[in-house]
Amino acid sequence: INEEDHLRLQTIFSGLQLTEAWRLIDRVDDELEERLDYAFLPRYGYLTACPTNTGTGMRASCMLHLPALVAVQKINDILKGISQLGLVARGLYGEGTEAQGEFFQVSNQLTLGLKEEEIIDQVERVTHQVVEQEKRAREALLKRDVIQIKNEVGRAYGILTGAHLISSQETLDLLSKLRLGIGLKLLPGFNIQILNELFFLITPAQLQIREGRELTSLSRDQLRAKLIREKLSKVR
């Protein structure tokens, strides 16, 4: 409430469930619109603080982990193709952030002149295409140098389970390697949900919320390492 726009509604689902997420938030939006006077013009649609959101005012996004496309150096071509299709790829933490841990957030750029269903369909279709490219890149990595991949995954696990000081950037890079290892079935029995949680729990803000006080950089690195060791001890 009262950030860039007066009101922003958000729903997050795991997996590729854009349609389900949209249906839920659409019902909430309809109920609110019965009670609130939204700024709306028939020609332009819903009016927002930022002109790029005018129209449906809807942003549909999918978070994708694309380590193999990064490793085989095809990610720039993929991102260029996404842009040409009217979508945009942002970083792990959304607009204005760079990709970290090989995570990319793919979302629509246009909200004007398109129906909500058309936006959902476009983002889902492109996401499926990118996922297929990532699968092919992973197969190529395994064929090219499986020993190197096993080495990187094993080293990542060793550092994360043994470190007593670790930065957020190093953590993201190492967690990404573990997540790739799980995807390639090199780490049987690992609970990927714990890794997904760690991507958010290890941020400076989350660590300070966890402790209930402001922390120095050194204290954050120490607490982060302790949290990771505790969490990873439960993955198998």
Give the N-terminus to C-terminus distance in angstroms: 41 Å
Helix content: 40-55%
SS strand fraction = 5-15%
**What is the number of E strands?**
5
Give the low-confidence spans. Answer: none
User: Mind describing the biggest β-sheet?
Assistant: 3 strands, antiparallel
Order of strands side by side in the largest beta sheet?
Answer: 3-5-4
Which of globular, elongated, flat, extended, rod-shaped describes the shape? globular
Q: List the total number of helices.
A: 8
Radius of gyration equals 20 Å
SSE-based structural type: mainly alpha
Mean pLDDT: 91
> What is the ordering of alpha helices and beta strands?
HEEEHHEEHHHHH
Structural summary, described in words:
With 236 residues, the protein is mainly alpha-helical. The chain has a domain at 142-232. The protein has eight helices and five strands; from the N terminus they run αβββααββααααα. It has helices at 18-33, 67-71, 75-84, 116-162, 168-183, 192-201, 204-211, 217-232; strands at residues 40-41, 45-46, 61-65, 87-90, 103-108. Strands 3-5-4 form a three-stranded antiparallel beta sheet, with helices on one face. Strands 1-2 form a two-stranded antiparallel sheet. Strand 1 (40-41) and strand 2 (45-46) form a beta hairpin. The N and C termini lie far apart (41 Å).
Name the features:
236 residues; mainly alpha; two-stranded antiparallel ribbon; 8 helices; 54% helix; nucleotide-binding; Arg_Kinase; ATP-guanido_PTrfase
Produce the secondary structure layout.
Layout: H1 18-33, E1 40-41, E2 45-46, E3 61-65, H2 67-71, H3 75-84, E4 87-90, E5 103-108, H4 116-162, H5 168-183, H6 192-201, H7 204-211, H8 217-232
Antiparallel strand pairs: 1-2, 3-5, 4-5
